[in-house]
């Protein structure tokens, strides 16, 4: 969803960060359980792979269908189901996003036999996917982030001034604190730093794929993360922060993901 350049305001995410969004009064109420829609694979009845799609702040799950994300999975003849999740900004504001993803999406998915779960997140959905991967090590088989929100510009500037994520030290977390239940953006960047091998940890990190438009308003942060990832897992396109760019990126990224194909 493209956001207008006027009436921008800061909305607290409830996880120690702030997201620049428009129309602050339009945040929907978070419901329990979080609403989901399952799109079954058309080539296999029982599959073990699930793609969990998280929308942007003011997008709705049906936009993944409208913009061809679901049909692209089917056209690629992948043995994977797709779950569209109504993870709107209200869940970030009331600090329940990680709890609801765990209780309403991941736990039922495992109960239904999904052995490999991927998160595909756009904008704040990409942020939520990264937070979930950080706080639930070993649960995800992969994360795809399209134009993810990665925190305020000041944090990214500090990382850039240090020479990039590999050189950035930042405030180190207390080893005795364990994995934070609700990490802030600094803690997220510390976790992302592990993708370049700076932080030695036993906690596994799922494969991370990044896509963004070169004129995206968050591109400064995206480039910092891109430098920490293998080149084959970074995708760019012309344009900014909207569905045409995300659709082009998804069409390019999907064939490169290690997902199972249809039988035969």
UniProtKB/TrEMBL annotation:
Pfam families from the xrefs? Abhydrolase_1
Its domain of life reads Bacteria
Task: Report domain AB hydrolase-1 positions.
Answer: 110-151
Family annotation (PROSITE patterns): PROKAR_LIPOPROTEIN
| Identification of the protein by name | Esterase
From which organism does this entry originate?
Variovorax paradoxus
């Amino acid at each position: 969803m493209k956001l207008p350049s006027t009436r921008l305001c800061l909305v607290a995410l409830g996880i120690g960060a702030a997201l620049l969004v428009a129309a602050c009064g339009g945040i929907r109420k978070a419901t329990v359980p979080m609403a989901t829609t399952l799109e079954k694979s058309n080539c296999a009845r029982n599959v073990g792979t699930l793609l969990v799609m998280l929308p942007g702040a003011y997008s709705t799950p049906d936009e993944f269908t409208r913009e061809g994300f679901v049909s692209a999975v089917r056209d690629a003849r992948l043995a994977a189901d797709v779950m569209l999740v109504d993870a709107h900004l209200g869940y970030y504001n009331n600090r329940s996003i990680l709890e609801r993803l765990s209780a309403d999406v991941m736990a039922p998915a495992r109960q239904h036999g999904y052995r490999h779960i991927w998160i595909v997140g756009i904008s704040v959905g990409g942020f939520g996917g990264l937070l979930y991967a950080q706080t639930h090590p070993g649960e995800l088989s992969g994360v795809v982030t399209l134009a993810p929100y990665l925190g305020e510009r000041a944090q990214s500037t500090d990382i850039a001034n240090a020479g990039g994520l590999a050189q950035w030290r930042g405030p180190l977390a207390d080893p005795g604190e364990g994995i934070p239940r609700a990490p802030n953006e600094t803690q997220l960047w510390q976790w992302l730093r592990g993708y370049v091998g700076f932080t030695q940890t036993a906690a596994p990190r799922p494969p991370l794929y990044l896509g963004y438009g070169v004129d995206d308003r968050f591109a400064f942060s995206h480039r910092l993360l891109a430098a920490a990832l293998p080149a084959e897992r970074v995708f760019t396109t012309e344009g900014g922060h909207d569905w045409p760019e995300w659709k082009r990126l998804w069409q390019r990224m999907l064939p490169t993901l290690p997902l199972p194909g249809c039988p035969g």
